Amino acid sequence: MRTYRLMSLLDHLRRRSAPVSAEVLAAETGVSVRTLYRDMATLQGMGVPVRGEAGVGYRLEKGAFLPPLSFDADELDAVMLGLRLVAARGDAPLAQAARRVTGKIAAALPEDRRDAYTRLPWRAASRGAAPTAEGADDGRRNLDVLRTAVRDRMILRLAYRDAAGRASDRTVHPLGLTAFDTVWLLTAWCETRDAFRDFRLDRIAAVTPTGATFAPLPGRRFEDYLATLA
Predict the structure, then answer these.
(1) What is the pLDDT of residue 132?
(2) What's the half-sphere exposure (Cβ side, CA atoms, 13 Å) at 23?
(3) Sorting pLDDT into bands at 50, 70 and 90, what band is 134?
(4) Ranges 44-58, 140-154, 185-199: which has the least confidence
(5) Which domain holds residue 200?
(6) I need a labelling partner for 78 at 20 to 30 A (CA). Which of 63, 114, 170, 171 fits?
(7) Residue 203's closest CA among 223, 185, 227, 228?
(8) Long-range contacts for 31-34 (Cβ within 8 Å, ≥24 apart)?
């Protein structure tokens, strides 16, 4: 039981890029603060590179070697369902990547859990057309270039047609992508409108990289957009 708790504590630390307080970690792992302090001392005694600073919190040293990730049953369910959603709703390269990740996770699991993981009864289906070289009804024909643009902060020009059929040309900073059941949505900072805008991928007629990139400016980031929805 304690070994599982220590591994769980490591996973909580792994997910964070900033220090986290003992109180927060104790609440997340379901133990008292005193027990949390003892667990941290145990990890440090085992050579795990955990740094604790009074008034700041705990964090893992950057670049540290850590034991392999461990997953409980609910986490494996979430991973498999998420990967199968990506395989069903992504463009061809993304779907293939999801299948590769599934195989890598299965290979890393203990043998007695591997078959159970690959046979999990979770499925995902898409009512949209399968992506093809010629295009897809739900706009996935542009998904590959848009994913790259979001990742590399590439400024794009879009030829777009709104719900009323009105055509426009937009210069945008692509910030994020959201998958719905039948369509993908691009969230971007639109230079043309000087504001956040959402673009349905099935209404984007053409995507043209400008060759320029953008910086993540405060007030124009994806997290700033999400804050407007709260």
Answers:
(1) 46
(2) 3
(3) very low
(4) 44-58
(5) 140-229
(6) 63
(7) 185
(8) 31/5
Same structural domain for residues 114 and 33? no
Report how far residue 199's alpha carbon sits from residue 202's, in angstroms, rounded to the nearest whole number: 9
Residue 80 near residue 74, CB atoms below 8 Å: no
Find the CATH number of the domain harbouring 225.
Answer: 2.30.30.100
Residues 101 and 155 in one domain: no
Amino acid identity for residue 123 in this structure = R
Contacts of residue 78, defined as CB under 8 A and 6 or more positions apart, other chains included, come to: none
Burial class (CB in 10 A: 0-12, 13-18, 19+), 25: buried
Please give the model's pTM, rounded to 2 decimal places: 0.61
| Position 45 in a domain | yes
Per-residue pLDDT band at 200 (split at 50, 70, 90): very high
pLDDT at 196 over 50: yes
